[in-house]
Amino acid sequence: MKRGESAVAWVYAVLSAGFFAACGWAQVNDPDPERWVTFYVVCGSVTALVWAATAAEATGSTAAALGRLLSLASLVLSSMVTAVLANDVLLVLEKDEDGAVARLPPLLTATGLAQWFWHVLELEEGREVIGVLLLVIHNLLLVFTSQAAAASAGAPAQSQAKKSKAKRQLKKKPAWSWAQVLGILAMLALLGVAVYAWVEYQPLMNSRYNTPHCNGAFDHPFAHNNDANQH
Fold first, then answer.
1. Which domain holds residue 157?
2. Calpha distance 157→15 (Å, rounded)
3. Which residue, 125, 143, 228, is CA-closest to 183?
4. Residue 154 CA to chain centroid, in angstroms?
5. What is the pLDDT along the chain (231 residues), one digit of tens a residue?
6. Signal sequence span per UniProt (predicted)?
7. 186 contact partners, CB below 8 Å, separation of at least 6
8. How far from 84 is each of 71, 76, 90, 175, CA to CA, in Å?
9. Can you say whether the dihedral through the CA atoms of 200, 190, 18, 215 is positive or negative?
10. Quick check: pTM over 0.70?
């Protein structure tokens, strides 16, 4: 992996790790915070940092294998959780007799698809699906890029016994394709949109069903758990 690619990897790792750590922090007053906080931190933040630290390692190294294994395991786990939560959302939508949308945010038009999507966001389960789906895309990107970076890192060692011309060609070859670089940039943009939507519209998302532990997650952490313990 070249120096520029390594810098891009670390920028993405730090920003995405911070994003998923914030997702975990938002779960601290959830009825079962330990599971969700651990899930977001390990499958989101830890995988990003390990990926950046091991992406340039040679293909056969233990560090590279650990990084790819962690990303792959997180991808499988987050995909399974997404499927379970999506099924829960569909069950809730089937039981919800009032499918009308009370207040659409101004950025969404009053089309059927926008109304359906906003209704999903009004459900706690729907917001959970979106968060975990971001984890799926995140880990898919890590798996996709780590394979190319590791192959590039392992190439110079294999080329030492070859002709110098072939060795120079290997060195000039970038670890990532344009598709992989664009994937990282697109994921950063997606995380930015998610942050904006959460900051701007989260109170409105929860206003319809007014789920108690979804109010003031950042202002009063552990408040829900403290109330439960008192009772």
1. 3-230
2. 32
3. 143
4. 28
5. 566 778 889 999 999 999 999 999 988 888 889 999 999 999 999 999 999 988 766 555 788 788 889 999 999 999 999 999 999 888 887 776 555 444 555 555 556 677 788 888 888 889 999 999 999 999 999 998 876 655 555 544 444 445 454 444 444 445 677 888 899 999 999 999 999 999 999 888 888 788 877 875 454 444 445 554 544
6. 1-26
7. none
8. 20, 13, 10, 36
9. positive
10. yes
Q: Say how many domains are in the chain.
A: 1
Give the angle 128-90-187 at the CA atoms, nearest 5°: 40
| Structure tokens belonging to residue 221 | 């952490």
Residue 230's identity, in one-letter code, is: Q
Spatial CB neighbours of 164, under 8 Å, sequence gap ≥ 6:
none
Can you give the three-state secondary structure of the chain, one letter per residue? CCHHHHHHHHHHHHHHHHHHHHHHHCCCCCCCHHHHHHHHHHHHHHHHHHHHHHCCCCCCCHHHHHHHHHHHHHHHHHHHHHHHHHHHHHHHHHHCCCCCCCCCCCCCCCCHHHHHHHHHHHCHHHHHHHHHHHHHHHHHHHHHHHHHHHHHHHHHHHHCCCCHHHHHHHHHCCCCCHHHHHHHHHHHHHHHHHHHHHHHHHHHHHHCCCCHHHCCCCCCCCHHHHHHHHC
Residue 200 CA to chain centroid, in angstroms?
Answer: 20
